[in-house]
Amino acid sequence: MTPTGRATAPGDDLRTWVPICAYADLIPERGAAALVAGDQIAVFRTFDGRFFAVGNRDPYSGAYVMSRGIVGTRDEEPVVATPMHKQVFSLVTGVCLDDPETALPTYPTRVTDGTLEVSVE
Amino acid sequence: MRIVVAGYGPAAHRLVETLARRGFTGTITVIGEEPRPAYDRVALTSYLKGTGAGELTLPDPGASARVLLGDRVVRVDRGRRTVTTRDGHEEPYDVLVLATGSAPFVPPVPGAGRAFVYRTIEDLDAIRAASAGATTGVVVGGGLLGLEAADALRGLGLATHVVEMGPWLMPRQVDEGGGAVLRGHVERLGLTVHTGTGLDRIEDGRVVLADGTSIDAGVVVFSAGVRPRDELARRAGLPVGERGGVVVDEGMRTADPAIYAVGECALAGGMVYGLVGPCNAMAEVAADRVLGGSASFTGADLSTKLKLLGVDVASFGRLSGALDVTYMDPVGGVYKKLFVSDDARTLLGGICVGDATPYTLLRPLVGRELTASPSDLLFAGAGGPRVDLPDDAPVCSCNNVTRGEIRAAIAERGATDVPALKKCTRAGTSCGSCLPALASILAAEGVAQDKALCEHFAHSRSELFDIVRVRGITTFSRLIAEHGRGRGCDICKPVVASILASLDGGHVLEGERAALQDTNDHFLANIQKNGTYSVVPRIPGGEITPEKLIVIGEVARDFGLYTKITGGQRIDLFGARVEELPLIWKRLVDAGFESGHAYGKALRTVKSCVGSAWCRYGVRDSVGMAIALELRYRGLRSPHKLKAAVSGCARECAEARGKDFGVIATETGWNLYVGGNGGFTPRHAELLATDLSDEELIRSIDRFLMFYIRTADRLQRTSAWIERIGLDHLRDVIVGDSLGICADLDAAMERHVGGYFDEWRATVEDPEKLRRFVSFVNAPGTPDPSIVFETRRDQITPVLVEVTRS
After folding, report:
1. Which of A27, A33, A76 is facing B486, going by the closest CB pair?
2. Which of A36, A47, A70 lies closest to B490 in CB terms?
3. Topology (CATH level 3) of domain A12-118
């Protein structure tokens, strides 16, 4: 099971966690981009209060825009659609639901004292 | 095989098109007398109302036919199987098809040479030229074509008289009662009707009727029937009818097995047909026979439904019968009559004047058992009884398409809307009177479920609009909790955002609504391929001061933006990063600019020509009107983008007919066109109303836009929307208030106008909204390193680079 989207997971203590922003900085169902050690990461807060982090690069257009996509659900799964040509990706697995050959990288997330943290290691 | 077609009107066009569609591999030579390819003669009158000759041209038939225009066949040598043209050209054939049409009947009265006829574009050009110096006109003939011609003369500004030999108008289509109601309509429009009398003579400037009446007439038009052009066949020794027409068998073949005749020149089963539907059917039969088939033409439905001088007139089936049921409302100008068999069980035919709604539903039921009482059926279609059609009932008589074929197109070929049905079956592509029937068949076939917006809502956009409006819902979360499932997607969220914006205004980035917007609305700018945005300030009507132009130039220079003039007469500034957007807006807003809503499904621009202030041809102030309209409708959220234009004269430099709503100035007011667009499927706007005052124009556009916003599907441009609901229905709703909603539409537009504010200014002034305008939430001062430009033609252009971890 992927640790993505869970507040904590076994082995979390061994990871390097990078603070991104305050919980309240994110609007529900809207993303934001973050720069972590040279990587662009898109972080999202879903309606039920969970956090997800995926790569910010849209693999179809090559532009770094995933954080600006519309967040929603497909068959209960939280998803984001790229704002360029609307391909839909799972926020849980990063896989493109319209084209399972393509996927975004995913990153573990957690909340510590009201701060969202992401691990890229 | 070599096929030669003599004549290039609609029937010849249909023949060639059918041959092409069915894979004919021989050569086709078409010889047409007119200087242009086949055009839609049914729509001829629209030519005088501004439709270009090119628009009337029928689509390319799709065959590699050789077309010789401006020449005609003058001799057929049946022994050698060749034809000779007027210009001396000789063409051999294996199969010859006569499609020579008919000629207007000119009564042999003294002075007939002074009169015009009404059949070709050249005839109309001549009538228009003659009308320029005239004030009065007389049309001889009060039938279908005569009233068309009378409408044309009236449109050219002439005081118009109609002279009909028969006892009432349109004697072939309606009975005396219908004729009386029709006459009332025609006279209310200011026309003078003379029935039961013929023409004695035409003199300079006047006509004298057989009863001695003298009428001033600057222009006289004969529209008293047509005669088949069968002279080629006569000269070639082929049998013709007593009153004209080339005699053909059920396969459209003349006495010479190598020669066919189709269309108005043919005498099939002892009848000459002048309606487009039967003529098309003949062309298809002939094409089938040429290809070795055995199709036959055994007569045709002579039903007609048309709008003449703004009045619906329809007749179908037999216009006599043992029993009839009549409804007459002389006040409302409505006359309806059904003929039934003597046991009152079978529908035989009917006549409608002033309200043709029963026509679409009842015409296919001719010869069948009644499904409701005749008096109920008189009101079919307007909240009356539902009428189900059997599979073999014809739905489109112009193209001979049955209910069963429509059903098959839906079930087997996946047609899910009216345009798809038109494409699959050709139904509704000629006169269009069956379009409402197509829509109701779609509904009856359960295509309604395809209206589901996405997996989250089982509703169409217009249904969601009504739910939100009637229930007073103001948030997406409540709407989806009560009427949907899941948490939405990139399809339903922007739709709901647009509905909420249309209904109660408010800022599109306020609260939860921010999360519903597509990226363009979310950043109030247009995303480009490298993730940067472009910024378009509003320049109403395309009018701008030098000072403001300088500000735009300075902003572009200071932020290093690429600039381009748009097609909508404004300036687009490209290459802004998200954190630069508020800074750019601030500069623009301070200089008096506001958002141009280039990013929204909303009004974009109202383009204008120079207009009467400067242009020596302009008859009205197109710039002033364009600015007024753009300021009135700015910020109006709609199912798709809205574009508009105003032209100051008929030269139409603003290209208004390519817009969702286009306004063209006339000497006496404004003409309003609706439903045009460029894009993937270009379409010219159609005339909705003429000679409007400023107030009438604005009121009409208000209602048009609000009705569109309420009832269109997601991402449905006005053109497709009008195709779905029908232009006549639209006119009835917003001019005649047939649904009783005009007051409501007017109030909704007043709320929009009163509630407008500039989204850019409101964002720049709100620190909470400004917080999202950063490239990185954890590094607000850092620009996005993936955004790189190179220089091309002295300006920036984006370069896509993949940034990898160092």
Report:
1. A76
2. A70
3. Rieske Iron-sulfur Protein (2.102.10)
Q: Is A68 in Cβ contact with B490 (below 8 Å)? A: no
Nearest Cα neighbor of B676 from B688, B661, B698, B664 is: B661
Per-residue pLDDT of B530-575, as tens digits, reads 999 999 999 999 999 999 999 999 999 999 999 999 999 999 999 9
Of the candidates B111, B277, B100, the one whose C-alpha atom is nearest the C-alpha of residue B202 is: B111
Is there a binding annotation on residue B396? no
* Neighbour count for residue B725 (Cβ, 10 Å): 18
ipTM of the complex: 0.90
Q: What is the CATH number of domain B388-448?
A: 1.10.10.1100
Q: Which of B266, B264, B269, B261 is nearest to B286 (CA)?
A: B261
Residue contact B519–A32, C-beta within 8 A = no
User: What is the average pLDDT across B676-702?
Assistant: 91
Residue B502 · residue B536 · CB < 8 Å: no
CA pair distance B593, A62, nearest whole angstrom: 33
Check CB contact under 8 Å for A63 and B486.
Answer: no
- Lowest mean pLDDT across A6-20, B164-178, B641-655, B688-702: A6-20
Inspect the interface and report whether the beta carbons of A34 and B778 lie closer than 8 Å: yes
Provide the shortest C-alpha distance from residue A24 to chain B (in Å): 12
Position B740 confidence tier, pLDDT thresholds 50, 70, 90: confident
For chain A, which residues make up each domain, given as ranges? 12-118
Question: Between chains, do A68 and B523 touch, taking CB under 8 Å as contact?
Answer: yes
Look at A78 and B487 and tell me if their CB atoms are within 8 Å.
yes
Which residues of chain A have a CB within 8 Å of the CB of B531? 63-65, 68
- The CA angle B759-B764-B765, to the nearest 5 degrees, is 100
Taking domain B112-224, whether its CATH number is 3.40.50.1820 is answered by no
Which residues on A lie below 8 Å from B515 (Cβ)?
Answer: 27-30, 70-71
In this prediction, residue B381 has a pLDDT band, given cuts at 50, 70 and 90, of: low
pTM over 0.90: no
Q: Superfamily for B301-385? A: FAD/NAD-linked reductase, C-terminal dimerisation domain (3.30.390.30)
- CATH architecture designation of domain B600-757: 2-Layer Sandwich (3.30)
Q: Does A35 touch chain B (CB under 8 A)?
A: yes
C-beta atoms of B486 and A25 within 8 A: no
Mutate which of B457, B480, B487, B772 to test chain A, going by most A C-beta atoms within 10 A? B487
Residues in B touching A29 (Cβ below 8 Å):
487, 515
Q: Which of B596, B598, B628 is nearest to B611 (CA)?
A: B628
Residue B615, marked binder: yes
**Strand B206-209's sheet: what is its strand order?**
B199-203, B206-209, B214-216
pLDDT value for B549: 97
Structural domain boundaries of chain B?
Answer: 2-104+227-290, 112-224, 301-385, 388-448, 461-522, 600-757
- Name the class of domain B2-104+227-290: alpha beta
